[in-house]
Structure formats: C-alpha cells, structure tokens
Write a structure and sequence with these properties.
The protein has 223 residues and is an alpha/beta fold. It has one domain: HUPs (Rossmann fold), CATH 3.40.50.620. 36% of the residues lie in helices and 17% in strands. It has nine helices and eight strands. 34% of the residues are buried.
Length: 223
C-alpha cells in the first residue's frame, strides 16, 4: 500500500489551535501515515518584513507538534532558494518520499477558489491530491465551479458526493471540519495590544512567544 502523507503549508505566524485541529481531523478522516507542517520561508504574497523570521515560525511549529505521534515539521522551504512556491515544494517532497508515497495537500476552500493566482497552479493537480477544508461563507459547489472553469471540465463528482475525479489528474476531496474562529491575525493583534492569547495557542507556543516578545509593539499586526 502507498504511504499517505498529508501536507499543510502556511506562514504559521503563529501556529494556533485552529491549524492543529484541522490537521487532526484530516489525519483521522484520510488515515494519513504522517502529516507534514511546512512553514513558508518566502511566500510570494507577503513581504519579508511582514513575517516573523522563518526560524521562529519553524520553532513554534516544532513545539506545537512535538507530542503528536504522526505530526511532523519540515524545514524544506527554508532550504529551497527563492520564493516559496507550492508546486516546487510538492515536487521536492515527491523526490524525497519516492513513488511509494501519496501526497495529500490540505487547503481551505477560501484559498482553493483563488488557486488560479498561484504560480503554475494547474501543476498542483498533477503532484498531489487536494483536500479542500470547509470554510464559513463558502459551499462545496464552489469547488466544482472552480475546477470546471479554471482547471478542467472533465472533473466529475463521485457517487459519494465527497470527491471530484478526473481521467488523468489527481482527485480533489471535500472535507467538512470544525470551524474555530481563530486566526493568526487575531493572535498578532491581541499580542500587540498586550492582551491575552492564552487558549488560542498551545502553552509551549505561548511561552515561546512571550520569551521572544514576537508580537509586542507591532505597528501593523494585520499583516
């Protein structure tokens, strides 16, 4: 049997319990052998000054998943030159894991319907199965519309109405998940105001943030 590898990318500035809960539910639903968290080193949609250093974001992830038997953190994008493009990251993961591994890329529905703004986005559907996580204000029908208009009209909903399949491209799976009204933006704003972020992040991450004063005094915590 192929080894199932879940992949969750993001800036994780900082990682919070919403990220972790989504990952846990996806791991349970798809039976991943492991789930990789990959912090973006130099995402094309953000400026370097708007992010905490890659090393800080990587370390917070390591602290957050340390006790989980199947969660892993990868510094892959920190080792790659230039901008952090998901297509390149997935290609490198394919090389590292080999043909015996099957990659599942987790993406929120809000981000999925904007994939056409990502670099070489159509290649994503050749490199990994997509797991589209539900988001408030978006419907599963949005997945089918995006696929038909932006990727291929030959994607079809399967009999269980949970996945879209294609003759040559990889499947796209829809997953309902718990919606927690937590965001990294909220955490940065609260921290910049000197307010509590307890119970929004794990205790280990909270201690790291406080020790390193990561978000205190931010002039624009929304970025």
């Amino acid at each position: 049997m192929l080894k199932r590898i879940g992949v969750m990318g993001g800036t994780f500035d900082p990682v919070h319990i919403g990220h972790l809960r989504m990952a846990e539910e996806a791991l349970e639903a798809f039976g991943f052998d492991e789930l990789l968290f990959i912090p973006a080193a130099d995402p094309p949609h953000k400026t370097e000054k708007s992010l905490r250093a890659f090393e800080h974001r990587l370390r917070m992830l390591e602290l957050a998943v340390d006790a989980h038997p199947k969660f892993r953190v990868s510094d892959l994008e920190g080792r790659l030159p230039g901008k952090s493009y998901t297509v390149i990251t997935l290609g490198r993961l394919q090389e590292e894991y080999g043909p015996e591994a099957e990659l599942y890329f987790l993406v929120g529905l809000d981000a999925f319907v904007e994939l056409d703004t990502w670099w070489n986005y159509r290649e994503l559907f050749e490199r990994a199965r997509m797991v589209v996580l539900s988001r408030p204000g978006y419907e599963e029908e949005d997945v089918g519309l995006f696929l038909a208009r932006k990727v291929s009209p030959f994607y079809e909903m399967d009999r269980n109405c949970t996945s879209f399949t294609h003759p040559t491209l990889l499947p796209v799976h829809c997953m309902k998940n718990t919606h927690l009204e937590i965001s990294s933006t909220l955490i940065r704003r609260l921290s910049s105001q000197g307010r509590s972020i307890r119970y929004l992040v794990l205790p280990e991450v909270l201690r790291y943030i406080e020790k390193n004063k990561l978000y205190r005094g931010l002039s624009n915590p929304v970025q």
